User: Which sequence fits this backbone?
């Protein structure tokens, strides 16, 4: 739900109607600034240019390439306690949850990786006539 503030005062009351409709109980609310998720143009450029160039070069499946790159650049190791034992787990985040800035950084990393590892130059969004 969106809450609008102006000069430190709430100017939207949608949240009040929502909260008063909840059954009795304890609830937790989180407040954060909304962020722009990756754009459709970013996604089109990523699949239509970046992934397509790598697929054409390697001859592998586009989805497999995408999963490899997401694992390479977006995965993190986290510690998880299971019955008193700390286990290390590897997260596999999805690009759909990246902000526009994060997705641009990811694309830049993939393009740099392709140039370094594959000796493959992937055109920039501007060169490929994409506005991202």
Assistant:
């Amino acid at each position: 739900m969106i809450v609008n503030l102006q000069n430190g005062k709430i100017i939207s009351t949608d949240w009040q109607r929502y909260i008063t409709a909840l059954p009795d109980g304890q609830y937790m609310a989180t407040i954060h600034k909304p962020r722009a998720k990756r754009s459709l143009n970013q996604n089109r450029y990523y699949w239509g240019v970046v992934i397509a160039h790598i697929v054409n070069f390697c001859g592998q499946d586009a989805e497999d390439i995408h999963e490899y790159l997401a694992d390479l650049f977006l995965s993190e190791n986290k510690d998880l306690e299971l019955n008193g034992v700390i286990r290390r787990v590897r997260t596999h985040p999805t690009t759909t949850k990246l902000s526009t800035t994060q997705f641009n950084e990811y694309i830049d990393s993939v393009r740099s990786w392709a140039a370094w590892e594959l000796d493959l130059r992937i055109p920039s969004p501007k060169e490929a006539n994409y506005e991202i």
Notes: The two ends are 27 Å apart (CA to CA).
